TrEMBL record:
Function of the protein: NDH shuttles electrons from NAD(P)H:plastoquinone, via FMN and iron-sulfur (Fe-S) centers, to quinones in the photosynthetic chain and possibly in a chloroplast respiratory chain. The immediate electron acceptor for the enzyme in this species is believed to be plastoquinone. Couples the redox reaction to proton translocation, and thus conserves the redox energy in a proton gradient.
Protein name as it appears in the record: NAD(P)H-quinone oxidoreductase subunit 5, chloroplastic
The gene coding this protein: ndhF
Listed GO CC annotations: chloroplast thylakoid membrane
Topology of the protein relative to the lipid bilayer: Multi-pass membrane protein
Domain NADH-Ubiquinone oxidoreductase (complex I) chain 5 N-terminal span(s) in chain numbering: 74-124
Length: 723
C-alpha cells in the first residue's frame, strides 16, 4: 500500500489524541485524571504512529515519485471555485518529519516534566492539538487552506503560552502573541484576495505560473503584482518572529518549558517560513519582493543577536537565538538560496529540539533549590557547575550550544556556511553583516553556557563561590550582582515563628507576589518540608531520553547537504531531493568551501573566545568575589553601559510599542470619545430633556373638560385663518 494516498492521516492522529483527552476531561473529569498516565501513553502512541508516515513519503520522493495532489470541491459556483485536499511534494516531508519527530520527543519530555501539575492532562491536549493544524498546514495545496491552518496554529499557541493563565505575565504574553499575529494576518487576508483577483486561483501550482504569464504579457502591472505578493508576507513576518513583529516570541517563554521546543523549532515559527517557501516560485519573479525579504531577514538576525547579549533568563537567551537564526532562514530565500533556507530550517529545528529540553532539565533541577519562580529558576545567576551534578544534561546542552554557532561537525555548520557564502556574493554588505552575526552567535551562546553548566554552583551559600558570600541575610530585598549583567534580588520572608529565613532555599513557599509570580510547577507532593536538595541532581530517565535522541540528528542531519564526491560539489542528497528549478545555491569548489568554512568557524571561535575570557569559569569565579563590593563596576565594566542597557531593554522596542500603540491608542480613544460624549450625547440628551419639560408644562394646561378643548381648537383654527 502506498502511504502517499493516505497522507491525510498524518494530522488525524494527533487530532484524535487531543479529542480523546478533551472529551474525557469534559464528560468524565475524575476518571480521566485518575487515568492520566494511560492518556499520556495514548497521546505518545498516536503521535508516534504519525511520525512513521513522513519518512516514508520522503523516501518515495527521493526515489523519483511524482508530485501528488488530491483535491475535492468545497465551494463551486459561477464566481468562485474552491477546492480542498492535500499536496505531496519534496517540501511536504521536509517540514513534516521535524514536526512529528520533535513532537514525540517533547510529549515524552512533558510526561516527566509536568506530572505534578494540576493541568497535566489539559497540557497534554494542547501540544497534540497544535501538531494537527501544523501538519495540515504543511499538506495544504492552496492559500485558503494554509491560512485556515495558520490561524488554528496561532490559536493553539495562544493556549500553550497562556497555559498558566492565572499569572498576569502569562495572560499578557498570550494576548501579545495573538494581537501581533492578527496584525500580520490582516495583511495575509488582503494579499490572498488580491492574488485571486489577478489569477482567479488559490492553488500554489497555478499562482506562480499565472503570475509569470501575466507579467510577461504585460496584462498586470509589476507594482500591483508586487503589492499582491507582498500582502501575505506580513503574516509570515509575524508567525516567524521577524522584525518588527518579533516582540511576542520572547514573552512566549511564559508558557511551560516543554512547549518552547515545538513553538521555536517545529510549529508556529516554521509556519511563516513555510509560506515563503511555498510562494518562492512567485517571489523570485519580483526583484523588489526578494530584496525586501533579504533585508528583513538580515535585520532580524542582527537584532536578535544583539538583544541576546545581555539577557539573564536562560529561556529568553534561547528565544532570541531562535529569532536570530530565523533571520538567517528568512534572509536565504531573499537572496535566492531556497535550498540553503530549507537546509538551515531543518538543522536549526533539531538543534533547538536539543537545547530547549536541555534547559527544561536544568530548570526542573533548579526549582526545588531556588523555588518555583521563573525569575529564580531560569536566572543564570543562580546556576553554575551543573555539569558536575547533571553530566548527561550538561553534555547534551553543550552539543545544543555548539550547533547554532556553526561548529563542525554539528548540524548547523554546513547550512549556516552556505547562507554566509551566498549572502556575501549577493550583496557584500549583507554578507559581512551575516559574518558579524555569526561571531555574535558564538559569543551569546557561550555567554549562556559558561555560567550555567560550568564553574561552581552559586545557589548554595556553603560554596566559596556562592552568589551571596558577604551579604547580610537579614537585609530584605537586597540586590546583588553576580556576573556580567546578571543582577538579581534575594528576598526574605518571615516564618510562622516570626524569624526571617531566606526565600531562595524554601521550595515549599508559594512565592506569588501581587499576582506577578507563580510557581513554574505546583509543588510536588513527594517533597517534605524538612528535606530539600542543596544541589541539583540529574533528571530521570524519561526526561533524559528526549535529550539523548535529538543528539543523533544534531550530529548527523547536516550530512544531507554534503556532496557525495569532490568531483560533484553541489550534488548532495538535499539537492537531489528538492525541485531542481528551485534548489539553486552557489556551487563551491573544494578550495572555496574550505576558505569559507575556515572563515566562518574562525569568526564563531572568536566570539566563543571572548565569552570564555569574560564568562569562563576561572574569570567568572574571580569576578564574583570582586563584585561583593557594591561600588564595583563588575564584569559589565568591559562594555559601554548604554549598549548593555539597550540590549537588556530589548532595544527599547517593547517600550516604544507600548508608548506609541498602546498608550497612543488609548489617548486617541479618549480624544474621540470627547465629542461623542459631550456633543453627540449632549444633543440626544438635550432633546430628551426638552421633551420631558415640554410635557410637564403641557400637563398643567389639561383640565379634563371637553368645552375647554373645543375652545382651544376653535381659537387655534381662527388664528391660523387670520394668518
Amino acid at each position: 500500500m502506498k502511504l502517499i494516498y493516505h497522507a491525510w492521516m498524518v494530522p488525524l492522529f494527533p487530532l484524535i489524541s487531543s479529542i480523546l483527552i478533551g472529551l474525557g476531561l469534559f464528560f468524565f473529569p475524575k476518571a480521566t485524571k485518575n487515568l492520566r498516565r494511560i492518556y499520556a501513553i495514548i497521546s505518545i502512541s498516536l503521535l508516534g504512529t504519525a511520525m512513521f508516515i513522513p519518512p516514508h513519503l520522503s523516501w518515495q520522493q527521493i526515489n523519483g515519485n511524482p508530485i501528488y495532489r488530491y483535491l475535492w470541491s468545497w465551494i463551486h459556483n459561477k464566481n468562485v471555485t474552491l477546492e480542498v485536499g492535500y499536496l505531496i511534494d519534496p517540501l511536504t516531508p521536509i517540514m513534516s518529519v521535524p514536526i512529528t519527530t520533535i513532537g514525540v520527543m517533547v510529549t515524552i519530555h512533558s510526561d516527566s516534566y509536568m506530572p505534578h501539575d494540576q493541568g497535566y492532562l489539559r497540557f497534554f491536549a494542547y501540544p497534540s492539538l497544535s501538531n494537527a493544524p501544523m501538519l495540515g498546514l504543511v499538506l495544504s495545496p492552496n492559500l485558503i487552506q494554509i491560512h485556515i491552518f495558520r490561524e488554528l496554529v496561532g490559536m493553539c499557541s495562544y493556549s500553550l503560552i497562556g497555559f498558566r493563565f492565572t499569572r498576569p505575565n502569562a495572560a499578557n504574553a498570550r494576548q501579545k502573541a495573538s494581537i501581533t499575529n492578527r496584525v500580520g494576518d490582516s495583511g495575509s487576508s488582503l494579499g490572498i484576495s488580491g492574488s485571486y483577483r489577478i489569477t482567479g486561483s488559490f492553488e500554489f501550482e497555478d499562482l506562480s505560473e499565472l503570475f509569470n504569464k501575466l507579467l510577461a504579457n504585460h496584462e498586470v502591472s509589476l507594482f500591483f503584482a508586487t503589492f499582491c505578493a507582498l500582502s501575505p508576507f506580513p503574516g509570515s513576518v509575524a508567525k516567524s518572529a521577524q522584525s518588527p513583529l518579533h516582540v511576542w516570541l520572547p514573552d512566549a517563554m511564559e508558557g511551560p518549558t516543554p512547549i518552547s521546543a515545538p513553538i521555536h523549532a517545529a510549529t508556529m515559527v516554521a509556519a511563516g517560513i513555510f509560506l515563503v517557501a511555498r510562494m518562492f516560485p512567485l517571489f523570485k519573479a519580483l526583484p523588489l519582493m526578494m530584496s525586501l525579504i533579504s533585508r528583513i531577514g538580515g535585520i532580524t538576525a542582527l537584532l536578535g543577536a544583539t538583544i541576546a547579549l545581555a539577557q539573564k533568563d536562560l529561556k529568553r537567551v534561547l528565544a532570541y537565538s531562535t529569532m536570530s537564526q530565523l533571520g538567517y532562514i528568512m534572509l536565504a530565500p531573499g537572496i535566492g538560496s531556497y535550498r540553503a533556507a530549507l537546509f538551515h530550517l531543518i538543522t536549526h529545528a533539531y538543534s533547538k529540539a536539543l537545547s530547549f529540553p536541555g534547559s527544561g532539565s536544568v530548570i526542573h533541577s533548579m526549582e526545588p533549590i531556588v523555588g518555583y519562580c521563573p525569575d529564580k529558576s531560569q536566572n543564570m545567576a543562580f546556576m553554575g557547575g551543573l555539569r558536575k551534578y547533571m553530566p548527561i544534561t550538561g553534555t547534551t546542552f553543550l552539543l545544543g550550544t555548539l550547533s547554532p554557532c556553526g561548529i563542525p561537525p554539528f548540524a548547523c555548520f554546513r547550512s549556516k556556511d552556505e547562507i554566509l557564502a551566498d549572502s556575501r556574493l549577493y550583496f557584500p554588505i549583507l554578507g559581512w553583516m551575516a559574518w558579524f552575526i555569526a561571531g555574535l552567535t558564538g559569543f551569546y551562546m557561550f555567554r549562556m553556557y559558561f555560567p550555567t553548566p560550568e564553574g561552581d554552583f552559586r545557589a548554595n551559600p556553603s560554596n566559596k563561590h556562592s552568589i551571596s558570600p558577604s551579604v547580610s541575610i537579614w537585609e530584605e530585598n537586597q540586590t546583588i550582582k553576580s556576573g556580567k549583567g546578571m543582577d538579581f534580588a534575594l528576598s526574605f520572608v518571615k516564618n510562622k515563628k516570626g524569624s526571617k529565613e531566606l526565600e531562595l532555599f524554601n521550595p515549599l513557599e508559594n512565592i506569588e507576589e501581587s499576582g506577578e509570580k507563580e510557581m513554574e510547577n505546583p509543588v510536588s507532593t513527594h517533597y517534605s518540608q524538612k528535606e530539600y536538595p542543596l544541589y541539583p541532581k540529574e533528571s530521570n530517565n524519561i526526561m533524559l531520553f528526549p535529550l539523548l535522541v535529538p543528539t543523533i540528528p544534531t550530529l548527523f542531519i547536516g550530512f544531507i547537504g554534503v556532496p557525495f564526491s569532490k568531483e560533484k560539489m553541489g550534488f548532495d542528497l538535499l539537492s537531489y531531493w528538492l525541485d531542481p528549478s528551485l534548489s539553486y545555491s552557489h556551487k563551491m569548489d573544494s578550495e572555496e568551501f574550505w576558505i569559507n568554512a575556515t572563515t566562518s568557524v574562525g569568526t564563531a571561535f572568536w566570539g566563543i573566545f571572548i565569552a570564555l575570557i569574560l564568562y569562563g569559569p576561572l574569570f567568572l569565579s574571580r569576578n564574583l568575589q570582586e563584585e561583593t563590593d557594591p561600588q564595583s563596576e563588575g564584569i559589565l565594566g568591559y562594555f559601554p553601559s548604554s549598549l548593555y542597557n539597550w540590549s537588556y531593554s530589548r532595544g527599547y522596542i517593547d517600550g516604544y510599542y507600548n508608548t506609541v500603540f498602546v498608550r497612543g491608542t488609548r489617548t486617541l480613544a479618549e480624544i474621540i470619545s470627547f465629542p461623542d460624549q459631550r456633543i453627540l450625547d449632549g444633543i440626544v440628551n438635550g432633546v430628551g430633556i426638552s421633551s420631558f419639560f415640554g410635557g410637564e408644562v403641557l400637563r398643567y394646561g389639561e383640565g379634563g373638560r371637553i368645552s375647554y378643548y373645543l375652545f382651544g381648537l376653535i381659537s387655534g383654527m381662527f388664528i391660523l385663518l387670520i394668518i
